[in-house]
């Protein structure tokens, strides 16, 4: 992908032009009929970076959709979320005679100025999920989302006045609230696959901490763990939080403390040597973490076995 041309869209109008759409009716907010999108290029794969948020609801996706390295038959009600400065890449099949349908909602960050949403939008972690971690919805859930999208469109179609921005922002906040709820539901309904991911997390960490090369590699990071699972760090964090109540970092620390306890109770290695073997540059950092998690120091833990 690094060799491919990346388009850059600073405005919603620029995206409209590239997509063969008429000029947007509002410069900072636009709801697009996905079936009307016709990218103005002969390329089979296009990549772009956009300077605005987009929320996509795509229906009638032909074939299967790859989701976190798993195949699913969810052909309808598929949502994706893209934040400004993220790179999007899609493959175009010029031989297809049927077009997908659905909607694309674009919101420029300038529209959020002087609203609470400018501060709170970053808490919606699904804007940091990869496209293969999209949200799948039931028919009922989809109807709720479409209703809100249409309300947003109706509002910017109306005569714009001093209430327009607040009303649209309230609708966007409602939309994001429902999406947050639906993602939580998705973590639960995909329980079998998600618990398989949890088992893989344990296995990856177990292998990592048993590696003799740990001294050179240092302690594992959330980014490393996510990459091993072909997930984005945000998605993995949300999934683990929903399944266990703990963050990715907490899972890493718990495994680290488990290994530390094993070494403290079964070897004569010094605390400094154990810290070094577990990938810490400084034994003080290790001791501080150990005490924060166990309420006692490594030496106090060792003494309890004597």
TrEMBL record:
What is the superkingdom listed in this entry's lineage? Bacteria
> Is rRNA-binding one of the keywords?
no
Q: Which SUPFAM superfamilies match?
A: Homeodomain-like (SSF46689)
Supply the alphabetized keyword list: DNA-binding, Transcription, Transcription regulation
Mark the transmembrane ranges: none
Q: Which InterPro entries match?
A: Homeodomain-like_sf, HTH_AraC, Tscrpt_reg_AraC-type_HTH
PROSITE patterns tied to this protein: HTH_ARAC_FAMILY_2
> HTH araC/xylS-type domain spans which residues?
199-304
Descriptive protein name: AraC family transcriptional regulator
Q: Which organism is it from?
A: Pedobacter alluvionis
